[in-house]
Amino acid sequence: MIKNFIKSLDKVFSRTDIIIEVFVMASIAFYIIGISFNYSTAMSFPIAARIARLLIRSSFALVIFTTMYTILTMQFDLKVTAILIIIGFLLAINYYYARDGRLMLVYCYSISSKNIKPEKIMSVALISISFILIFVISLRFLNIIPDITEYMTRTDGSIRNGLGFYVANVASYHFLTITLLYIFVRKEKITIVEMMIMYIINFAIFNLTKTRNSFLATNIAITLTILVKYIKSDRFHKVFGIISTASYILGAASIFLLTLFYGTGNELALKLNKLLTGRLRLAWEGLNSTFGVTLFGQNISTYTGSYSVIDSSYINCLVVYGIIFFILMLILFTTFVHFAVKAGDKYLVIVLFVIAYYSIFDGAWLMFGYDPFTAIYIAVMCRAYPALRDRFYAREIYSF
User: pTM of the predicted model, to two decimals?
Assistant: First the structure.
C-alpha cells in the first residue's frame, strides 16, 4: 500500500509542467479574488482583511516560485535571453525610481505562464471575477456588509450604489472585464441570446452604480461582437483591424490633445471637462502643477485633491512609469493588437480595442492592484510567444 502511494507521488511530481500550470492558475485566481475583495466594504471586518492579505501573499509566493522554476528550466536562445535581460533591467530601473512593482508582477506572470493556453488563463480569470462580484453583491444585498456614501452622490444629485465596494465604479468595471473575458473564451460559440442577457445585466448595474464609462465600454464590446460575428464583409474586418491596431496610439493622442485643450482655458473645454466629470482637470493637474513627467517614473500616488485620481490610464502611466515605459507600453500593446489581427483572432482584437478605448477616461490600465485586466495581458503575452518566435527566429533551439 505504501509502495503504491509512493508510485502515485512519483507520477504526480514527474509531471512538473502540470504542477506549474496548477500553481500559476491558483496564483491568478488568488490574486484576482484577493485584490477584488480588498476593494469591498467587507474589509471593515478584520477576518475578511486577513483572508484578502493571505490570498494576495499566496499569489505572490506562487508566481515567484513558478517564475524561478521556469527560468531555471528554460532553454534560451541568445536573442531571447538578451530580450529578457533588457526588460528585467528596465523594470529594475523603473522600480528604483517609481517604487512600483506592478509591472514586474506581470513580467513574472508572462514568463511562468508561457506554456499555458491563453484560453485557460482567461477562463480562470472569468470564474474568479464572476465569483467575487456575485459574492460581494450578495453580501451587500443581505446586509452582511455595509455600503458607503463617500463619492456616491454626483454633482447632478443622482445617487450611486457601490454594491458592496468602496468605489462605485468597481462593480461595473468588473462586469466589463467579465464581458471581455466571456467574449474571448466563447468566441464563435457565443449566441445572440447570451449577448442580450449581457446587455440587460449591464443596464441593471449601470442603473445602480451610474458608472457611464464602464457601461458604454461594455455596450461597445457586445455590439462589436455582434458585428464581427455576423458581418462577413472583408472590407469591414480590414477597416476594423486597421483602426484597432492604431487604437492605443489614437487613445493616448486623444486624451493628450483634450488635456492640452483644457489647459487653454477655453469655455468649450471647460464645458467638456464638466461633461467628463472633471477628468480633464485631473489630467492637467497631474501633468503640470501636481506631479509632472519624468524619464523613468516616480514614487507617487496619483491623487490630486479631495477626489483626485488621474482618471486616464495613458496620463496615469506617463506620470507613474515615466516617458520611456509609457512609449514602450504603447509599442507593446500596439504590437499585441497587430499580432491578433494578423492571426485572425478577431475576438482578442475586440478585447484589446475596448481596453484601449476604456483607458482614455479611466485609470485602470496597468493599475494592477485594481485591474482584473491583468489576466488578459498575461494571456495576450502567451498568445504572442508563438508569433514572436515565428517572426524573429529561424531555428527551433529554444523551448517556446
Answer: 0.84
